[in-house]
């Protein structure tokens, strides 16, 4: 069966004329006649009741049935071509904030690069900024941190929880408080804190926590660079609230155990725009989820 024969057939169904179909399809009338003949021989039936000449009276019952099926076949062919083009040529823009990029991308990227060369990493300051890029359609999917579980509601986003972590307070290894096994909140009353800028979830979480626990605004220093913030803390400029996964032994930082206060949670989600869903995007989404399930079996809550 030739798909072009189906196109001629559907045009015949509308025009009821071999001549009109041939003229509008820019082929000879015998071309159209032979296409119909091939289809009728294929299905061993007649699709039209015909008059003499080039006019067709109407579709037979089998012709009407085949008309609907022919449309479906051509739709499937068109959709298949589109999916193949997407699979071969589509670029997936993956948005990643700096902290998540520094901690999770080294885990995901080696496998993603093997999987597809058409992944473009977009790194901007903070999860809040990346989330807005995703909502605007400037990235296709993103690894985004939230201070509470993400609720999709009517959002056009597909969401899977990759890993759950917590915020803690860190100081320099040379800080007097670093030597204590446990501290209480009042030990931090005169402490200067370093915070990231408004594009980061850390900023919102820390300011809410600081207000709740009586930490004065005048004792907070701001920077938009994660590395700069860590270097200030290491140099004993102040303490900083960070997620555990954002620190390493090389940072020279020590986590404080504060026994009389609850520390906020941090949830990292893989989000994707469902309106932009394509073959490659779906595969990248599933690949990241599979890697996360293997790497974070105790902290994974992927749906």
TrEMBL record:
It comes from the Bacteria. One of its GO terms (molecular function) is DNA binding. It holds the Pfam family LysR_substrate. The keyword Electron transport does not apply. Residues 1-60 form the HTH lysR-type domain. InterPro entries: LysR_HTH_N, LysR_subst-bd, WH-like_DNA-bd_sf, WH_DNA-bd_sf. Gene3D superfamilies: 3.40.190.290, Winged helix-like DNA-binding domain superfamily/Winged helix DNA-binding domain. Keywords: DNA-binding, Transcription, Transcription regulation. GO terms for cellular component: protein-DNA complex. The keyword S-adenosyl-L-methionine does not apply. Belongs to the LysR transcriptional regulatory family. This is LysR family transcriptional regulator. It comes from Aerococcus urinae.
